[in-house]
Predict the structure of AB hydrolase-1 domain-containing protein.
Amino acid sequence: MLATHAPPSLIKPIVFFTSSLLSPRTPTPLSLPKLLHHRFRRRLFRRLSTMAETYASAATSSADHVAGAWYSVPDLRLRDHRFTVPLDHSTPTSSKISVFAREVVSVGKEEQSLPYLLYLQGGPGFECPRPTEASGWVHKVCEEFRLVLLDQRGTGLSTPLTASSMQQFDSAEGLAEYLKYFRADNIVKDSEFIRVRLVPDAGPWTVLGQSYGGFCAVTYLSFAPQGLRQVLLTGGIPPIANGCAADHVYRACYQQVIHQNEKYYKRFPQDVEIVREVVKYLAESEGGGVPLPSGGVLTPRSLQTLGLSGLGSSAGFERLHYMFERVWDPILVPGSPKRMSYYFLKAFENWLDFDTNPLYALMHESIYCQGSSSQWSANKIRSEYEGKFDAVRAAKEGRPVYFTGEMVFPWMFDEIHALRQFKDAAHLLAEKKDWPALYDSAALNNNKVPVAAAVYYEDMYVNFKVAMETASQIAGIRLWITNEYMHSGLRDGGGQVLHHLLGMLNGKKPLF
């Protein structure tokens, strides 16, 4: 991290000194000592020039905002920003956390006056993507915007809440109290804090919200529309009902999950028997499961969570199928017992990310709460589906075993090693009733900010019917309804999804 202030007296002497080192003169042959001295001066010039650039960048920073120097990846220039914000924005004197944002432009556009676009990542609890080149939607954004990739509080480089860092809390009550500040309401307040310090003249910016990032963008429309130039939503229109909307969401989502399971087994009918065989093996294993490399345990119900990624995103079906191709170890020695392969067990853990991003499991149901508790809604609604998601029963009866979707269950905090230490805090969050409001229906009904949304007809994570209910309450929203893409359309479509939404707002595409 750079110093927050560079002494003004230091910058000018550096610039003056370096400019005098290599004054123009007629080239002459150099002896070896002179050649070495000349090379030394060139290296010193480069080093001092870098120092001057660094100090100049730091000089524009303030006590609560530190901007780094520009650096490069192929066809892009990037600059890191770190902001010191209150944990509780309603109490500026509360403890502070750091929020990280990465500014991205096309090469050569560092000094151009471009409108700003803030990207809000899906989740909750996941950091922004790290660009490695100018491609896909990032390339499309950088054609006309200055892109800001925000690591939402608690993720990435924003005072991350990890399985190890959260061990610093000595009680479940203390952790639960801390975590209440990591929802969309405070993500929006962080965004406004950043906007007034980053955008010239504190002007409004465009917000692009993917999935949960779209939920945050609708919260932004509700409480801080003055900071918004326009809003783009991709698979991210939330339920906005008061109380807890989780039950309504999961009833709709379970129906879509069943549909996705049926599609999967039609695509790969051979997997019906393979998955049943795995479930029987797990159920008959000692303790009802198989130890995982991390120390957790793979049980029939945790196996079903593979649907979280496998059923709802592009190429998910294929990835899931190929994973089950290698579920068993070969029998190398006659008479050896049948065993699940280490490859499969490790792939299972890598698939879910609960160990690296525990905030997702802890906070997931809270994103649906306004003044009411979730009470483990996904687990409660699961019981309404007459055994369709009972893996052991399905295997015994010869039925296909259904995978689950974007649901978090209380037993995960027993079976997933990285989550065990947070079990008590998770229960406290599930019972918490006094969650503040995330949306303002009156403000949305009177919305004046241009909004365009991609609504995916077979979205497993953000149900189509639920999204349409909310869209009807956002004044002026322009909808693009499509079954060409799944929930990951922004990533999968290159720049096409973003191109279509921008076209709807700038008049290049039909409004309806």
